[in-house]
Amino acid sequence: MNLFCGIDIGGTGVKTLLMDSERKVISTDFFLTQSINGPDVFLKSLHESIKKQMDSVGDVALLAAGIGCTGPVDINTGIILNAYTLNGLEGLCLTRAIEDELGVPVYIENDANTAHLGEIVALGEADPGNTVLVILGTGVGCSIRVGHKLFRVPGGIHPEIGHTSCGVSSDVTCYCGKNNCMENIFSGTAINRDAKRFFNATPEAVLDDCDTDEKRQFRENLVSGLFNMAASMAGIFDSKLIILAGGMQNFFEKYLMKEAQERLDLLNPDFGAAKLIRATLDTDSGRLGAAILAQEKLREAHE
Ligand SMILES: [Zn+2]
Fold first, then answer.
1. Mean pLDDT of the chain
2. To which H or E segment does residue 244 belong?
3. Strand 25-32's sheet: what is its strand order?
4. Is the model more confident about 170 or about 160?
5. pLDDT tens column, 42-63
6. H or E, element range at 134
7. CATH fold of 127-278
8. I want to staple 65 with a disulfide (CB 3.0 to 4.6 A). Which of 5, 20, 137, 237 is the partner?
9. Distance 89 CA to ligand 1 centre (A)
């Protein structure tokens, strides 16, 4: 059986899988990143994770591997640039190290892009071609596709939206210097921070019991920020679909998405109307997208 390996490297954990040529998931595995232990320990854990799965499948031929990696990564050299979330692995040329281990071509992407590729496969024929995936987690990240292709800033830089305005201001200034950026209003960090300092409660507790003007204003800021972000992204990239992913996606779906969608539905369709959906594959899209990246890159290399 011909297989592709997908690897999703996060700050906390690494998710791996094997996928066949028909994009069916054959097996999955997980291990803790523990980047602080350094490259040798990390690569050993990764190798064991993949080898274990290949042994369990039996007669297999691995054709290529794809990696989705958190934070800044040079997709041309495969070098991890992130000293914050992958402390201990910065400077590691991950693609070459894994190529040496597995003996197959290895491709790497920002993890938002691999998650996006996984979600697009889940959409199937419903994929409109122009889509934005927004990662709502500790921070706010994104991946943008235009005309079925990943959008990059010239020079190959991954676009960042987290520190652009969402039209809502906070009395706290973000480390970027602004007080109205998305990360400062509706990242998981900001939502938890504000719920704690204004209400000494969790965000869920505040929104479950929204019975004061202050709580309603807290909710309004989040809905308004989400609406402004979606309308802006849809307007700039002609995106008809905004996919909400990341660790906060359940929170957004439960408390904020419906009302933001109602506001989007009132817009002129030519000026920022879009549909908000949550990630279909939950947090599993990264490793599937990484395997799809490997399959597509290998195909391109042979064309
Ligand atoms: Zn900021």
1. 91
2. strand 241-245
3. 25-32, 13-20, 2-9, 61-69, 106-110
4. 170
5. 999 999 999 999 999 988 899 9
6. strand 131-136
7. Nucleotidyltransferase; domain 5 (3.30.420)
8. 5
9. 26
Q: Residue 136 has which token pair? A: 């709502």
Cα-to-centroid distance, 170 and ligand 1 (Å): 11
Distance from residue 175's CA to the centre of ligand 1 (Å): 6
CA 140 to ligand 1 center in whole angstroms: 10
Query: In this structure, which CATH number among 1.25.40.10, 3.40.920.10, 3.30.420.40, 3.40.50.970 belongs to the domain 2-115+283-302?
Result: 3.30.420.40
Whether 154 has a pLDDT exceeding 80, the answer reads no
Within the chain, which residue ranges are assigned CATH 3.30.420.40?
2-115+283-302, 127-278
Query: Which residues place a Cβ less than 5 A from the ion ligand 1?
Result: 163, 174, 176, 181, 183
Dist. CA 165 → ligand 1 center (Å) = 8
pLDDT at 84 (0 to 100): 67
DSSP3 helix / strand / coil % (the chain, rounded to 5): 45, 25, 35
